[in-house]
Amino acid sequence: MSRHPDPGPPILSVRGVSKEFDAHGRKHIAALSGISLDVWQGEFVTIVGSSGCGKTTLLRMIAGLIRPTAGTILMDGHEVDDPGPERGMVFQAYTPFHWLSVRRNVEFGLRLTRKAKGLPPAEIARRAEEWIAIVGLHEFADVYPKVLSGGMRQRVAIARALANDPEILLLDEPFGALDAQTRTAMQELLVKIWEDTHKTILFVTHDVDEAILLSSRILVMAPHPGRIVEEIAVSLPRPRTIDTLVTPEFLEFKRKILGLIREFSIAGRKCGP
Amino acid sequence: MKHRFPFLRDITRPKEPVSRRVALLALWTTVASFFGIWCLLTYGGYVGGIFLPKPHKVLVELFNLFIYEGFLLDVWISTSVVVTGFLIASAAAIPLGMLMGSYKIVFAMADNPVNFVRYIPVSGLIPLLILWFGIDYAQKVAVIAIGTFFLEVLMIADTSAAITKEIVDTSYTLGANRLTVLTKVLIPAALPGVVDNLRIGMSGAWTYLVIAELVAADHGIGYRILNAMRGLKVAEIFAGLLTIGLLGVLFAKLFKLILTWGFPWYEQAEAR
After folding, report:
1. Is the Cβ pair A109, B180 closer than 8 Å?
2. Rounded to a whole number, what is the distance in Å from the CA of A64 to chain B's nearest CA?
3. How confident is the model at residue A271 (pLDDT cuts 50, 70, 90)?
4. A 168-207: CB under 8 A from B
């Protein structure tokens, strides 16, 4: 996968974004400072960094759930001001709507935007069915989330976000609460979906292995204040499997990223308050 | 290691579920011990009949009340006062509670005022309520409605507030707006919890009944109890209390049924 499969303008463009919080009377704690990044159509970009570096805050700003203190975020050239269905999001916490069956969960966004998009009910049902099958939940289409395991709940969340056909999928440590085996299965599922659909994905994680295995490009963030310190194109061939984890190329990427995270977290502590 | 009493080991383990049969056995153990102590104290002659009636006397009294003294009418009047007061209270508490739990601005407006009024005993409001509503039906309903409203509203606010921000944020990223997030997410997510809050509200409504019937009543279970007290008819007091208790169990079952049938997706907590 080349770095910019689509040579046109980026679909997502973050320009000089900063975010300050007021906390405990100490005013204007800089959570993020001068963030700029671009994401092109069809890319799988991962933001990696230690906890507290502001990567979740950045993703939530791109989703339109919080507003930056300074700077602009452009989606398809339009400034992001509010959340919208063209920026689907999956959270680390389990978010299936527990009062709806799996099928109704996946149909949720389509039913909401049905009138605007002029979707007939049969088309909504067909698309939901398709995405339920893709994430492997067809046997559970009509059950309520309370009987589903953590991994299955995240499958519902992914299918629900993608059935809505977003231009970019934002994922905030979606597999962080899953056990190692389930996480691997979910990573493989996500990469397969990405390869099959050419969806643009912006993924946030603190797991360096996960970042290298999944992405075409990695942005490394450092804390105090949160900023992007390095951009790395992951040239490893696909498919990437557990065998990839022990290749010298993989280990070279891992060494580099871990080194960056360590360097900046120590530096950050030194000049912190 | 083999335990000498595997049954004892199982039932003393925290959070461990017990079978339906064991649960029923446990219930009857409670009822039987309660009844046994009662029998022992009264038939054994340890407590005089003027303080604690013999069980059979309460049953006879219940029979007399229903057959000869038109007690069914009292039960009907009390139930209608309680249910009317409960419905008025809930009609106000459900929307206000949900708004308080969902919108920080409504919470800021209502939280302290609600707490302020909540700490005023309803019995202290009775003189005022008599002045405003007279001494009839309306005043009794008002006592129950006010008491129940303030009991329910903060519970419902808590239930609504417990819906996670991630659930709300997710619905925004799926295309929900301010209105649809309320109608399609916040309300359906909170409903079963609210029904459970109403169950507790209903039990509160019954506790306000006797206060409501304290003044100028000529019918009702509470009136009967107070009247029996004046005549030291202790068996009748017990018969009245027993009736309220049984009605309470009935209403609790009704709310449990609504939860089970109306909200199959809801994960009910047992001990509440």
Report:
1. no
2. 8
3. very low
4. 170
* Cis peptide upstream of residue A225 (ω within 30 degrees of 0): yes
User: If we measure between CA atoms, which residue out of B184, B185, B199, B218 comes closest to residue B152?
Assistant: B199
CB B174 within 8 A of CB A160: yes
The number of C-beta contacts closer than 8 angstroms across A and B is 74
Pairwise CB contact (< 8 Å): A157 & B185: no
Average pLDDT over residues A130-156: 94
Q: What is the mean pLDDT of chain A?
A: 90
CA–CA distance from B60 to each of A43, B26, B53, B68, B246 (Å)?
Answer: 83, 28, 11, 11, 17
Q: Provide the phi-psi class of B191: left if phi over 0, else alpha when psi is between -120 and 50, else beta.
A: alpha
Check B166 against A97: CB less than 8 A apart.
Answer: no
pTM: 0.84
Q: Do A91 and B172 touch (CB under 8 A)?
A: no
Q: Which of B184, B191, B267 sits opposite A146 (nearest CB)?
A: B267
Verify whether the Cβ–Cβ distance A160 to B265 is below 8 Å: no
pLDDT band with cut points at 50, 70 and 90 for residue A273 = very low
Q: How many residues does chain A have?
A: 273
Residue B252's SS3 state is helix
ipTM: 0.89
Predicted local distance difference test score (pLDDT) of residue B176? 93
* Structure confidence at residue A31 (pLDDT): 86
